[in-house]
Amino acid sequence: MWHLLEPLHALVYYAPEAFDEAAALGYDTTERWPSYFAWRAAPLGAPGAARVTSAFYSFSPAMVARYVPAAWETAVPAEVLAARLRAVDRTYRAVLGEDAVADPGLAEAAALARRAAEAVVPLGLAGRPLAAANAGLPWPDAPHLVLWQAATVLREHRGDGHLAALLAAGLDPVEALVSFAAIGAAPEPVFESRGWSAAEWSAARARLAGRGLLDASGAVTEAGRALRAEVERRTDELAAAPWAALGPEDTARLADLLGGPWLAAIGSGLLPSENTLGIGKL
């Protein structure tokens, strides 16, 4: 379900329509990070750099500090959230197509995804700051916007759980990236987008080697692969509750309904083929 929903969420970070909306607010769009930090952090209110660094986890504190709290000097969170929905509306109409946006199947998918997303609230949101922030937002009316918001709640719910799994595995933010790169999730240069210096990366690699998770050359060991597999297993386990609440039949139905939108998102060419999340890699 993550593979099907994540591309539908992530379009907002890459689509030209989203950059148009960000530029209209006054954000620099010569790079994607000013709008990325604004779009993703706005549900938290107007958080400072320390809070965003904590919630986002994998970004260098120095990188976060370049964009936060300056993001809220450009536009207040309420303006950002309204523009975010406008960006999703325009992006979905462009990428999925007007017919797909109006299709009853998409409305059915939105209703099912919303049920799964709403299940995270009674199940408990303790320790899940980004899921809680997005789950607390009002639901839009249009089905395609409901689908996007549900995808966002569910991906942040999973993401918050993933951070808990990383912490339990003893992987700090930069170690998490180094170990993820080592198992072939993406080439190391892709992870440079998270802002860690070469010295910080090398120090993390040395710490992992000291634990026997990498060898002297930086290649992953069997113990390193086993630890990353355990992180993913635990992440899946922590993300399972909304889907258990939705039930296997409705989850399978949602998966079928998401096929067309997923293909449109992947086929749009907007999402990078190599990324830190594994989008499009099944």
Provide the descriptors you would attach to this structure in a database record.
single chain, 282 residues, mainly alpha, 17 helices, 0% strand, globular
Number of domain modules: 1
What would you report as the Rg, rounded to the nearest angstrom? 19 Å
* Sheet with the most strands, sense and barrel status: none
Sum up the overall morphology in one term.
globular
In whole angstroms, the N-to-C terminal distance is 11 Å
Any low-confidence stretches, pLDDT <50, length ≥5? none
Task: Classify the secondary structure makeup into a structural class.
Answer: mainly alpha
Mean pLDDT: 96
- Element-level helix/strand string: HHHHHHHHHHHHHHHHH
Q: What's the total count of β strands?
A: 0
- Helical stretch tally: 17
| Helix residue percentage | 55-70%
Strand content: under 5%
Provide structural commentary.
By secondary structure, the protein is an all-alpha fold. It has one domain (2-168, 232-267). The chain is 67% helix and 0% strand. It contains 17 helices and no strands. The protein has helices at 2-10, 16-25, 33-41, 49-56, 61-67, 70-74, 77-95, 98-101, 104-123, 129-135, 143-168, 173-182, 198-210, 222-239, 241-246, 248-257, 259-267. Helix 2 packs antiparallel against helix 7 and helix 4 packs across helix 5. It is globular and about 55 Å long.
